Amino acid sequence: MATPLQESYSISQLARAFGITTRSIRHYEEKGLLRPARQGKQRIYTRGDRVRLQLIMRGKRVGFSLDEIAEILDLYHGPRGEEAQRRFLLEKLAGKRAQLLEQRQCIDNMLQELDTIEQGLQTETGKP
C-alpha cells in the first residue's frame, strides 16, 4: 500500500489511495494535469504528482472543471507563483460560492412550490 512519504507510486497505487480508476488518472494526464515520468511503458508518479492529484480531487469536489483546475495549478509555476494562484483561487471560490447559493435558492423555491402543490392536492382529496 502506498504511503504519502514514498518517493514514487504506480498508477494503481494512486488509484487505490484516492478511490478512483486508473482510467481517471490517465484522463488527467491527457488533460495535462499530471505528467508522470515513464520507465518503459510504466508510469512513475512522484510525491508532487500525488499532491497534484489530491488538489485535482479537491477541486472536483467543490465543482471546478478540469480546465479551471488546470488553470489554478499552472498559476503556481508562473512568474508570480503562489500569490497569483492564491488571488485567482479566491476569485474562483467566490464565484463558485455565488453560483451554489443561487442554485440553493432555486432548489428552495422549487421545494416550496412542490409543497404548495402537494398541500393543494391533499386538501382536494381530504387527506392530510
Walk me through this protein's architecture.
Helix 4 runs antiparallel to helix 5 (81-125). Helices cover 69% and strands 8% of the residues. The protein starts with 7 loop residues before the first strand and ends with a helix. By secondary structure, the chain is mainly alpha-helical. The protein has a three-stranded antiparallel beta sheet with strand order 1-3-2. It is built from five helices and three strands.
SSE blueprint:
Layout: E1 8-9, H1 11-18, H2 22-30, E2 37-39, E3 42-46, H3 47-61, H4 66-76, H5 81-125
Antiparallel strand pairs: 1-3, 2-3
Largest sheet strand order: 1-3-2
Topology as a string of helices (H) and strands (E):
EHHEEHHH
Percent range for helical residues?
55-70%
Quickly count the helices.
5
DSSP strand (E) fraction?
A: 5-15%
Task: List low-confidence stretches.
Answer: none
Radius of gyration: 22 Å
Overall 3D geometry?
A: elongated
Q: Total number of β-strand segments?
A: 3
Tell me the span between the first and last alpha carbons: 56 Å
Biggest β-sheet description: 3 strands, antiparallel
Q: Pairing-aware structural class of the strands and helices?
A: mainly alpha
The pLDDT mean sits at 89
What is the subunit organization of this protein?
A: single chain
Keywords:
single chain; 128 residues; mainly alpha; 3 strands
Short description:
With 128 residues, the chain is mainly α. The protein has helices at 11-18, 22-30, 47-61, 66-76, 81-125; strands at residues 8-9, 37-39, 42-46.
